[in-house]
Specification:
About 45% of the residues lie in helices and about 10% in strands. A 4-stranded parallel beta sheet has the order 5-4-6-7, sandwiched between helices. Strands 1-2-3 form a 3-stranded antiparallel beta sheet. The structure holds adenosine-3'-5'-diphosphate (A3P). The site of adenosine-3'-5'-diphosphate has 21 residues, from helix 3, helix 7 and helix 14. Belongs to the sulfotransferase 1 family. GO terms for molecular function: sulfotransferase activity. It comes from Olea europaea subsp. europaea. Keywords: Transferase.
Length: about 300
């Protein structure tokens, strides 16, 4: 396979979950993810009406998928009826561009298409750059993202391969060697594009969504051209969507406690604590200082605080 030949020529480092991460176009990927990203670069035909939800892994992808799916389908699937989120994990409702194209799972939809991706900005397929499709980018504080990724990767590691020590994982993360890392460069590239073209890209922070979810849900609705009507506001639609998609609700559903994705990952792996500042329970002060210094240095002068 062409992409396998390419992979053998790429720099590689010890992976978090599986054997290696490979450096492609300046960012690190697991083998299967990379094959999907390459295939998607070659084959994905973006349409102007497409909407892409983009995140660095563990920044709140599952939550964003649930919210956007519910928002844009609120007429087709009213929140109070038998909603698809009650029987399906958000990852089964909004496909990942890389994973699903690679597995040939994407079905042709004739209307509005919603995809998610972790791909860095400059590695998005050319047809995405050439089209007018919209991008919603969600990022998260690097300390919480790191802690979430550390737990997740240890959870998913195949049996008998042990857990990643916090120190080893921290070293990899800070050197940029994490899935779709360097984390800071991933965020920065989307931030810069958002600053230049806010009609096309909406930039959100997990912490802001937690603090003022209603404000940001309304922003999302406006951005996607489906603002809440007066009657929807009056009947509490915003609150209903937030409740349905909230951590407390989703994490307790049977499907998310016992179900699995097609790739075998358990749905419950995507719901851990869902809080802001959980890093305080794990990271020693030395790690906090190191990561804060990197963040300060990387984001210096760009007007972004995480
Ligand atoms: P924690 O590990 O800090 O709890 P992703 O979806 O990108 O894989 O990110 C997973 C993180 O988002 C996990 O963070 C998870 O608990 C949190 N999360 C999942 N669903 C959420 C929700 N509905 N609201 C808020 N956070 C959520």
């Amino acid at each position: 396979m062409e992409s396998e030949e390419l992979m053998s020529s790429l720099p590689k480092e010890k992976g978090w979950m599986y054997s290696y991460l490979y450096k492609f176009q300046g960012f690190w990927y697991g083998a299967k993810h990379l094959q999907g990203a390459i295939k998607c670069q070659k084959q994905f035909q973006a349409q102007n009406s497409d909407v892409l939800l983009i995140t660095s892994p563990k920044s709140g992808t599952t939550w964003l998928k649930a919210i956007i799916f519910t928002l844009v389908n609120r007429t087709r699937y009213p929140v109070e009826k038998n909603h698809p989120l009650l029987n399906k994990n958000p990852h089964d409702l909004v496909p990942f561009l890389e994973a699903n194209l690679y597995d040939n799972q994407i079905q042709d939809q004739s209307s509005f298409r919603l995809f998610a991706a972790h791909v860095p900005y400059h590695s998005l397929p050319k047809t995405v750059h050439d089209s007018a499709c919209k991008i919603i980018y969600l990022c998260r504080n690097p300390k919480d993202t790191f802690v979430s990724l550390w737990h997740f990767s240890n959870n998913l590691k195949p049996d008998k391969t042990g857990t990643n020590s916090l120190e080893d994982a921290f070293d990899l993360f800070c050197r940029g060697v994490s899935p779709c890392g360097p984390f800071w460069d991933h965020v920065l590239d989307y931030w810069k594009e958002f600053k230049e073209n806010s009609e096309r890209i909406l930039f959100l922070r997990y912490e802001d969504m937690k603090e003022e979810p209603g404000v940001h849900l309304r922003r999302l609705a406006q951005f996607l051209g489906c603002p809440f009507l007066a009657v929807e506001e009056e009947t509490g639609m915003v609150e209903e969507i937030l409740k349905l998609c909230g951590f407390d609700n989703l994490s307790k559903l049977e499907i998310n406690r016992t179900g699995k994705l097609a790739n075998g990952v358990e749905n419950k792996a995507f719901f851990r604590r869902g809080e802001v500042g959980d890093w305080k329970n794990l990271l020693p002060i030395s790690m906090v200082k190191t990561i804060d210094q990197i963040t300060e240095q990387k984001f210096s002068g760009v007007g972004l605080v995480l």
